[in-house]
Amino acid sequence: MPVRLIATDLDGTLLDADLAVSARTRAALDAAREAGIEVVPVTARQPIGLAQIADMAGFTGWALCGNGARAYHLSTGETLFEAYLSVAAQTALAEALLEVAPGSLFVSVRRGGEDFVAQAGYADVAEFNDHKRHPSQMGEATLADVLAEPSLKLVVRHPEVDNDELVGTIRGLGLPGFEVTHSGAPFVEVLAEGVSKAWGLARLCTHRGIEPAEVLAFGDAPNDAEMLAWAGRGVAVANAAPVTMAAADEVTAANTADGVASVIEDVLARV
């Protein structure tokens, strides 16, 4: 079945070591669009972070942010859907986690990903590239304020606990109402129950009348694994996490070697 939609992660997948789109990758994306293939960024980034890449990559159509929690159109501003983590679920998680992992810090990303409400102390351990925001602009909210409204994504971070351990600890709490994953950045991300990149991409494809078998997807991090498994053809870059490699149908070259571009070029050569 021909490819009708390309879904690609950004950091560690489409972008090179400088967080840029190489000339070869841009040419491949343009060629795909000219061939009538829809190209959709599927990222953990919020709109502020995607905006920095959209022009570079030529993205003008639908995009999925917040690990699939929000679908919106880059040109019209239309929001197709948003999925929020409830106040009850995030409050129960925070209270239980602080019992077993004191020192955990929280951020609520809300209102379509435009608002970033960080707990006091979070900015002290953050860098600009973590969220594409300068730490001086993150504020110092109380935990009660962080948890006061539903979150498109709840960021959880512990200065002394790595991502995989923190994900395991959160899952081990045995609480309902959320999903937890990470993108390789120095924090984990908690979403509404059932939400993932695969969930968001499936909803968008249903809206566009596109079958999973018509989707070519690329990724590298644990939060990409479900999307690669869902797509008709899931491709991991060579630098991908083991869980993502296992979920993929095949492996291409690393993000620093234009792995995404090489697969797209091959697809187009066979059209």
Automatic annotation (TrEMBL):
Q: Which GO terms describe its molecular function?
A: magnesium ion binding; phosphatase activity
How is this protein annotated for GO cellular component?
cytosol
Q: InterPro entries, alphabetically? A: HAD-like_sf, HAD-SF_hydro_IIB, HAD_sf
Could you tell me what this protein is called? HAD family phosphatase
